[in-house]
Each structure stands twice: as C-alpha cells, then as structure tokens.
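User: I'm writing a tutorial on reading structure tokens. Could you give me a worked example: one chain, its sequence, then its tokens, then a sentence or two explaining what the tokens reveal?
Assistant: Sure. Here is the example chain.
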Amino acid sequence: MSETGIRRKRLRIRAWRRGIKEMDLILGGYADDRLAAMDEDEIATFEAALDENDHDLFAWVTGQAAPPARFAPLVAELSVRDPGRAR
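And here are its predicted structure tokens:
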C-alpha cells in the first residue's frame, strides 16, 4: 500500500472515532464518500480539521460559529452532507 493509501486509511479511522457521535457521522460519512478522491492538499486540510476540537467543528458545521478561513471550503461541504446517509 502506498504512503498516501496508508494515510487515507488512518484518516478514515480517525474520522469515525471522534469524541461525539454527531461528528463520527458527519466526518466518517464524509471520509467514506470523499477521501479516496482527495488530492494531497485536500487530505492535508481534512487531516488538520481532524486535529480540531469536536465541539468547534460541530459549531462550524451547524453554522453556530464561523470556521477559520482555511477550513471554510471543507466546512461548506460538510454542512450540506446528509448525516442520515452515514454507514
């Protein structure tokens, strides 16, 4: 497996093993849907977002707080996802 493949696998696991179930569904489902097609810059942004606090991420995704500019495009994608589609 390539280095990028290993990185994607680790990120998928991290996305599904969050501190709060809502973020598991949002980030895990997003990883399942998009991670395989992400380029290196998108992977780096997603990885950095996974380092953020779940409560901050949840506030950004739900529109309760504005995300930092570097996460705005990712948060916009996460915000339109249907968590009910999560696996």
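What the tokens reveal: The chain has one domain: 3-82. The radius of gyration is 12 Å.
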